[in-house]
Amino acid sequence: MSDADPLNPHSHEPSPEPPSPDPTLTILWSHGRSQPISITQLQQFTAVTLENCTIVSTGHGTSGPFSFTGPPLLDVVEAYAPAGWSQVEVVSGDGFGTRIFATELTFPHAQGPIILAHTCNGRSLTRQEGLVRLIVPSETDDALRQVKWVQLLRVL
Length: 156
Ligand SMILES: Nc1nc2c(c(=O)[nH]1)N[C@H]1C(S)=C(S)[C@@H](COP(=O)(O)O)O[C@H]1N2
Ligand SMILES: [Mo]
Fold this sequence. Notes:
It contains 3 helices and 11 strands; from the N terminus they run E-E-H-E-E-H-E-E-H-E-E-E-E-E. It is mainly β.
């Protein structure tokens, strides 16, 4: 990871609006193999609820606390991609994203695992709110890893 890594920005003006009307989430792994994951499929994974999550927004203050619910990213990746991967790029339709290393998934933060949230405070996230949102409990500075409108999981 370098300073020039577009998936490791140092600051960012958050997009308030969804990037496109198409909410499809796709997972892409070795040799260009890919598969769409529907919200229904995502809801079939065993979910974890992370209580007391705050979204710390640079310039816009802090929102929350929220409870976010969804499967651990690790479980979703393992359901599709064969072993041997070392990182997952989690990217939104607006180009915003973050790089998650396998070690972050196999040794989760004390506050809980990184999840693909489909539910907030007990109800489904609207498209406006992110629909599928990555929640990284260890990140509490500027929300630069709390990716809304997740469109692509690129497993490397
Ligand atoms: N797809 C996407 N996700 C994003 C962003 C963005 O621009 N695009 N901005 C990030 C930043 S910098 C902030 S502060 C939060 C804002 O989240 P909120 O709109 O839920 O408060 O979203 C994060 N996730
Ligand atoms: Mo932010």
